[in-house]
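Example with several molecule types.
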Amino acid sequence: MHKNSRSLWEFANPKRFVSIANKLIPWLTICTVLSMSVGIFWGVFFTPNDYRQGAAVKIIYIHVPSAFLAINIYIMMLIASVIWLIRRHHVSLLAAKAAAPIGLTMTLVAILTGAIWGKPIWGTYWAWDPRMTSFAILLMFYIGYISIWSAMEYNEKVGDLSALLCIIGSIFALLSRYAVIFWNQGLHQGASMSLDKEENISNVFYLPLLVCLLGFVSLFFTLLLIRTRTEIRIKRTTSLLRMN
Amino acid sequence: MTLTGHSLACKRGENLIFSEINFSVIPGSICFVKGPNGSGKSTLLRLLAGLLGTAEGLLTLDEIDITNDREIRAEKFLYLGHQNVLKQHLTVREQISFWQGITKKCYDFETDPMNVQPILNKKLHQCSEGQGRRVALARLTIEMKKFWLLDEPTASLDTANIQLFKSILEDHCSNGGSAVIATHDNIGIKPSSDIHLSLDKSSLQRNNPFI
Amino acid sequence: MNPLLYILSYEIKASTAGRSLFLSTSFFIIVVLTANISMNQFGIRADKNSVSILWIALAMSALLSINMIFQNDYDDGTLDWFMLSPISLETIVILKAVAHWVTTCLPMMLLTPIVCVSMGINFNSSLWILLVMMIGTPAISFISTIGSALTLGERANHLLLPIFILPTFLPILVFGIKISMLVTNSVYDSMAFLIMLAISLFCIAITPFITAIIIKVHYT
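Resulting structure tokens for the full complex:
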């Protein structure tokens, strides 16, 4: 690559990536702390209670961003895996590997907050409504992806396998999701348990939610950069050790 | 038909197993792959067979590049590695008849070059290591390929059976076939050329993006 | 005879000779019986709706024999031989899946009408369930090849395989169980049948390519 050309693939060089990450991490941390605290404070203390749901609605400021991340992190992993398979950039693979536990945590947070929210509003912690089932399915594929990494040692072969698993997982996760939706909506009355938040929501709730969303996204990027940097350092250490 | 390797190299992950391997195998000749354990003899044979990709270099057959040609290799090469390619729960007879059926060629039970007649009705998991190897070597005489790529063909064979193997190898060469063999045993055949592999891995970590 | 048929019969012979056929069918019977017996002790009748046990047992016993699909071949060098043969790897995968279906799913399916009696399902419905299984199980066999290829050479991690293979059975299981339940209640939803057939065919269509790619990964 030409030395002065600035392209996305520059990040693919592990050393460049680490030096850029070092510069970015403090700023991202500040951004995360600021927007999360502002968003959650604003949302919890300075918005009115919902006329139907009361104060319980305020869990939305954690529930929606984490659910948003849970799905999008998997998509990010999918894209990173495809980049690894096509262009064979190690950083891309390591980023996918580093993102998976964050995604799993976000899925768990979304499910947990959903359960806490669901109890007072729907009267149950858990129902097999299509959207919740989708998250259960997502959880399984996150676990599958992480388990392949935990079971085998890092090498290019395992990288390929995990990337393929990620792609296979997304195909079957989608298939399962629509299989579930078919039975829940195709034959029965709609369960009508899931409110479509983004559409029904009024501006009073929407703005702090956006700030929270920003906070969660930058939290994800901070964690992702830190974790990828750690992975790169582990890889570098093992390579150096093996050389001597 | 002459098989020639031009500065072949093989990489596993970012590790370079070997590089700059040059050799030439003319019809009717045998080439031994020499080197200490772990120097990549098996890897070289797997690479020649086409089970591993070549990182650098060319493999040519009569000046035709076959580095990535799967079909020609399937037609001309026979690879026999450490494993015997035998199904443990089948009898020797079933195993041989499968090879005969799939290649549409016959094992010569009259002369019985690998002496499998006495164990024909045994199941393979009842056979000893050496007997299993004999059955595996019997496949060489069935498939009739031009190039044999053999990895430790005489492992766990006794002296008498090594003589049997030597005779089928000589038969093969006198019919214009050739062989690349990695072995520590003394088969009693003078190879026409050698490939030497060394344990020196000074260029091992070349191209590692993490360092 | 066609070399492909030769390989197929060789595969079936090699896997039935190893007695794994008997083991996976017995596993199926044992799971179904244990579930039925334990449920019936507490006044809960194992009724028509417990047909889901059948499907779970089927998926589990298919899982048990997944290791056999490629692992043995990998260990004894047959997979190397397949890689080098002029037959394409995708074809080999199809043959493997068919052999797996014949040796594990088919015997279990033949047992289904008998097992159904213990659940109080009448013979007519059990034939319908058999039809649903006929649609669903080939896909299960084909998907199994993915798992078998993924864990090649990972002998130590037996748990790894079910972790990522069971979730991929979900679409088939969801449809299979639901349709079987409807059938035992004399509801015949032809659209559901067709969609299940579509999912099954889709899985059968894509898996040989995926599995072949995964196997090639082990050879780079």
